[in-house]
Amino acid sequence: MSVCVVGQKAELLEKKLLQLGLEINPKNPEIVFTYGGDGTILAAERMYPGIPKATIKHSQFCYKCAFTEGEIEAAIEKLRNKTHTIVEHTKIEAKVKGKTLISLNEIQLHNKKPTKAIRFTVYADKKIVFENVVGDGVVIATPYGSTAYYKSVGGKPFKKGIGIALNNPHRHEKPVVVDGESEIVVEMLREEAQIFSDNDDKIVVVLKPKDRIIVKKHLNTAKFIV
């Protein structure tokens, strides 16, 4: 079985996997082991989209990790015997200014300058969801990401659909969960903003008034071994 490891201390787990008879193959792995916390899982999905992932906790916080370090051998035994289960999670994508951002957790629109609120309107399937909002931005989340940043700006965890929650708006608005097949459009009205995906700091798009972001379900899913 060919595998690879993603994590700041990947070499520690790689050594153990080699001792257990697995082949380390970063170019063409059958299974990706994440070794760290929740952020490591997001990074691994960007690096190896769609390849099944076994998530090993090697961090103070990892709410999404399926295995502890003490369960590694048992997990590998299940993989060898093909008695494991794979769970798929929806991803979303944002198209803006000729670029596509793909997210497992959330797409986030945020004001570029902390001292300047942005103004925008949010549509779902051409119907207004939030109109002429003044605030720091908006978080558009998957069910997988509904327990992450989406929750910290007032959203509640959900299992189906796409969640939309405003970030520090000028008037209180409850988060909305729309159908998972919906097309969400955010139209910029005032000031400059930034859009980014999950914890990825390599692709950040700057937006200006009249720019539009289109968010919808991504064609492919993320796969996790449980």
Shape: elongated
Q: CATH superfamily of the largest domain, please?
A: Probable inorganic polyphosphate/atp-NAD kinase, domain 2
What is the CA–CA distance across the termini? Answer: 18 Å
Q: What share of residues are in beta strands? A: 35-45%
- Count of β-strands: 16
* Structural class by SSE content: alpha+beta
Describe the biggest sheet?
6 strands, antiparallel
Write the layout of secondary structure elements.
Elements: E1 2-6, H1 10-19, E2 23-24, E3 31-36, H2 38-47, E4 53-57, H3 72-81, E5 86-96, E6 99-103, E7 106-111, E8 118-124, E9 127-135, E10 137-141, H4 149-152, E11 162-167, E12 176-178, E13 184-190, E14 193-197, E15 205-207, E16 212-225
Parallel strand pairs: 1-2, 1-3, 3-4
Antiparallel strand pairs: 5-6, 5-16, 7-10, 7-14, 8-9, 8-13, 10-11, 11-12, 13-16, 14-15
Short description:
It contains 4 helices and 16 strands.
Question: Could you walk me through the main structural features you see in this protein, from its secondary elements to its overall organization?
Answer:
The chain is built from 4 helices and 16 strands. It has 2 domains: 2-84, Probable inorganic polyphosphate/atp-NAD kinase, domain 1 (Rossmann fold, 3-Layer(aba) Sandwich); 91-219, Sandwich (Tumour Suppressor Smad4), CATH 2.60.200. It has helices at residues 10-19, 38-47, 72-81, 149-152, and strands at 2-6, 23-24, 31-36, 53-57, 86-96, 99-103, 106-111, 118-124, 127-135, 137-141, 162-167, 176-178, 184-190, 193-197, 205-207, 212-225. The strands form 3 sheets. It has a 6-stranded antiparallel beta sheet, covered by helices on one side. It is elongated. It is of the alpha+beta class.
